From TrEMBL:
<dbReference type="Pfam" id="PF07009">
    <property type="entry name" value="NusG_II"/>
</dbReference>
<protein>
    <submittedName>
        <fullName>Uncharacterized protein</fullName>
    </submittedName>
</protein>
<keyword id="KW-1133">Transmembrane helix</keyword>
<dbReference type="InterPro" id="IPR038690">
    <property type="entry name" value="NusG_2_sf"/>
</dbReference>
<keyword id="KW-0472">Membrane</keyword>
<keyword id="KW-0812">Transmembrane</keyword>
<feature type="transmembrane region" description="Helical">
    <location>
        <begin position="12"/>
        <end position="32"/>
    </location>
</feature>
Length: 129
């Protein structure tokens, strides 16, 4: 069957290996999804706000120096819509929606991170021998 056909035995094994690898990658990515997420806003390392990822919100983040960032939470996605920082990189970082994702505005010392309750929290994060 494989000797004179279009697909050789090596081709079949390569396709099977790619499908198995893709399945493993998908399983690992979906295992880390969160049940309930929180948007944590920190400025200069100090937590200022903790907002639910499930509630649509528009929040103007302003500090004493006049630095402003407009944070938007919609449909379990977070982004900075406007900012008065000189480079505007925080606006161009786009939407984040998974636990561990973050948006950083260095000129304003602002970090927006998504945190959540993982589905499997019973085991250790890492083991070292």
């Amino acid at each position: 069957m494989f000797r004179h056909g279009i697909i050789t035995k090596a081709d079949f094994l390569l396709i099977a290996g790619v499908l198995i690898a893709a399945s493993v990658i998908i399983a690992v990515r979906t295992a880390g999804r969160t049940e309930e997420g929180w948007v944590v806003v920190s400025r200069d390392g100090i937590e200022e706000e903790r907002l639910s990822l499930k509630e649509d919100t528009r929040l103007l983040l302003r500090d004493e120096e006049g630095n402003e960032n407009l944070l938007v939470i919609e449909e379990e996605s977070v982004w900075i819509e406007e900012a008065n920082c000189p480079d505007g990189l925080c606006v161009r970082q786009g939407h984040i929606s998974h636990s561990g994702d973050s948006i950083i505005c260095l000129p304003h010392k602002l970090v927006v991170t998504i945190e959540g309750t993982e589905k499997n929290t019973s085991g250790p994060d890492a083991m070292v021998n």
